[in-house]
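=== RUN LOG ===
request id: a7f3
mode: sequence -> structure
chains: 1
length: 215
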Amino acid sequence: MGANRYAELRENYRQGGLLESEALGDPIAQFHRWFDEVLAQGVLEANAMSLATASAAGVPDVRIVLLKALDARGFCFFTNYESRKGRELAENPQAALCFHWKEFERQVRAAGTVEKLSTSESAAYFTQRPRASQIGAWASAQSQVIAGRETLEAARRHYEQEFVDQLVPMPPFWGGYLLRPIEFEFWQGRPGRLHDRLHYHRRSDNTWQIQRLSP
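=== RESULT ===
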């Protein structure tokens, strides 16, 4: 493809549509509907989402994290509070999420304010994690520069020994966040790039306004 190898990559989406008459009035219910359809088809890591944050100065950053719960409050994920995203959320507690399910030619975006989950909620999830992941939470000084892979392996061995024959406690620097959405967008690919985009905005009375956006 030469110099145009990126420009020449394209698909003509044909799998479906999203009309206002078909969409649920509550975007969280609509998300559950789409997510259930994705899970039913066995899509791997359907809960993978891009998480965009920004520093107090407005410098953006984005990475993939895993959704671990969704209820009427919003989206929950877990991480090291001292990681880059943790530091940015402490400075600027606003974020945006994006899910992309290419098998269905769909994406969902959400944005809102972010707060820490309670210690009890974080601990309830931490106890469900595989032991290796619990040890990893202690061993990784997430986002910090380290000398090499051996530094990480040495830290893992240290905490395996420290917690041998006992339950691994939750690190004080680790836990969950809740993104409370104030807006959603549901995107369904359509032929000719005339995609469906339904935008939900939370009103002051906590009901949702639905509007169609031009693609």
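=== NOTES ===
The two ends are 28 Å apart (CA to CA).
Residues 16-127+172-212 form a domain with the Pnp Oxidase; Chain A fold (CATH 2.30.110.10).
=== END ===
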